[in-house]
Amino acid sequence: MGYAIELSGVTKRYATGEGQVTALDDLSLAAEAGEVLAVMGPSGSGKSTLLHLVGAMDRADEGTIRVGETEVSALSSRELPAYRQRIGFVFQRFHLLPALTVEDNVAAPVLPYRTGYDKHERARELLAAVGLTGKERSLPSGISGGEQQRVAIARALIGAPGLLLADEPTGNLDSATGAGIVQLLLELREARGMTVLVATHDLVVASRCDRIVRLRDGRVTDDAPVPKGRAPERVLEEISRLQPGP
Ligand SMILES: Nc1ncnc2c1ncn2[C@@H]1O[C@H](COP(=O)(O)OP(=O)(O)OP(=O)(O)O)[C@@H](O)[C@H]1O
Ligand SMILES: [Mg+2]
């Protein structure tokens, strides 16, 4: 089952050479368990920061973040690794290890840990789930960009996460391949009941999610469900109207 998410009054500031930048500004947001949320907004609006804080890769200055039963903002540094292990991450750059085979890349996150399952068997099952049976022994350099992103998704799922955080997962892919990746995420959500947060600039990607949250200057400016049961072009038309004009 996926984790419900709740951010309440979250502020994140970064110190820079020119002073402080407020990346998230008193932001509140909730997602239901199993929901697929698109996080949109212009460059610099705080999308990646939001994902990093939810994934406990960085800490908020103010506010609280709850993921399932866990109060992420209250975790001690000793508790962080166990929490992160329950979250899957997918990034724009696939970050595959070039010297490892596809199968070893997928198993890599859990190799240091004792698990109740066979790591390589699960890696092969996940590769089958993302349509990469037969590529287990390939090196990342020997497969396409879309295939590499599917390996990255399989790797993110190896710990059976209740939450998948995807930061521009289709940003480096052509739109057809990108649409295939989103379709895959949606199918995996159906099969596994994960909650998914996907930061994206791509309206086609966003139109396939359950809900779109739009950020600007670290605040939520729009939060709307994606209309269901309409032709894809109509959905695109409706959600693009949500976007602030030029
Ligand atoms: N490590 C950092 N140090 C200093 N400032 C940062 C850091 N990370 C992000 N920022 C700043 O915080 C703000 C939000 O950045 P963030 O990366 O979350 O935006 P984004 O919406 O993901 O943008 P993009 O669409 O370009 O990926 C920006 O002003 C950015 O410059
Ligand atoms: Mg970003």
What is the typical, i.e. mean, pLDDT? 90
Q: Which structural class do the helices and strands define?
A: alpha/beta
Radius of gyration: 18 Å
How many helices? The count is: 8
Small-molecule binders here are:
adenosine-5'-triphosphate, magnesium ion
Q: Give the distance, in angstroms, between the N- and C-terminal Cα atoms.
A: 40 Å
Outline type:
globular
* Strand adjacency order, main sheet: 6-7-8-3-9-10
Strand content: 25-35%
The helix/strand order is EEEHEEHEHHHEHEHEEH
How many strands, what sense, and barrel or not for the largest sheet?
6 strands, mixed
Number of strands: 10
Low-confidence spans: none
Q: Tell me roughly what share of residues is in helical segments.
A: 25-40%
In short:
The chain is α/β, with parallel strands linked by helices and 246 residues long. The chain has helices spanning 47-54, 80-85, 102-107, 119-129, 145-157, 175-192, 203-207, 232-242, and strands at residues 5-16, 19-31, 36-40, 62-67, 70-71, 87-90, 163-167, 195-199, 211-216, 219-225.
3D structure, described in words:
This protein has 246 residues and is α/β, with parallel strands linked by helices. The protein is 32% helix and 26% strand. The strands form 2 sheets. Strands 6-7-8-3-9-10 form a 6-stranded mixed β-sheet, with helices on both faces. Strands 2-1-4-5 form a 4-stranded antiparallel β-sheet, with helices on one face. The longest helix has 18 residues. It is globular and about 45 Å long. The structure holds adenosine-5'-triphosphate and magnesium ion (MG). Magnesium ion binds next to helix 1.
